[in-house]
Amino acid sequence: MNLTNQFLIAMPTLADPNFHRTVTYMCAHSDEGAMGIVINRPTELRLADVLDQMSIPVSDNTVSDITVLQGGPVCRERGFVLHQPAGEWDSTLRVSDEIGIATSRDILSEIAEGRGPEHSLIALGYAGWGAGQLEQEVLDNAWLSGPISNTILFDLPYEERWASAARLLGVDPERLSGQVGHA
């Protein structure tokens, strides 16, 4: 099981407040562990706040009101930019042929100047799992995994992303249950 470039959809019974009704875009998954960005937890911060704190001048005022997301409970002070196209910015991990995740200042500078990637999502922090931890949580019925949708990832209002990601799997989110069936 490799969940890289997939959505993780939290089951309703997942009690951890960091992940209740979240959709996580999986950036990396291997035998050593997993890393993803929660894509439906907006914060009060705007990109203008982050750029100002980093002393990055803004010449494209349309980016100032972009919402910064809470990407997960790990390293909440560290910024991540999910972007499409994957591009060639410093410190970019290519998740797929189309999508990358960057942690460098250069991509924020380009976004501030209106020359950034066509689509981007800015988050503070990430979701991380140790070796075998995510696999066990999937077996314990804490998560559903499924294909991504660029529309859900970059365009859909945050409050619609969880239900829409579940519907991508053909699942009615109102009927989701944490009960595991046994024959």
Annotation keywords:
single chain; 183 residues; alpha+beta; VC0467-like; 10-stranded mixed sheet
- Overall 3D shape: globular
CATH superfamily: VC0467-like
Q: How would you characterize the largest beta sheet?
A: 10 strands, mixed
How far is the first residue's CA from the last residue's CA? 24 Å
Kindly estimate the percentage of residues that lie in beta strands according to DSSP. Answer: 25-35%
Describe the model.
The structure is a single chain. With 183 residues, the chain is α+β, with helices and mostly antiparallel strands. Helix content is 19%, strand content 34%. Strands 1, 2, 3, 4, 5, 6, 7, 8, 9 and 10 form a ten-stranded mixed β-sheet that branches. The radius of gyration is 16 Å and the shape is globular.
Helix/strand layout:
Layout: E1 6-10, E2 23-30, E3 33-38, E4 42-46, H1 47-53, E5 67-70, E6 74-84, E7 92-94, E8 100-102, H2 105-112, E9 119-130, H3 133-139, E10 143-147, H4 150-154, H5 161-168
Parallel strand pairs: 5-9
Antiparallel strand pairs: 1-2, 1-10, 2-3, 3-9, 4-5, 6-8, 6-9, 7-8
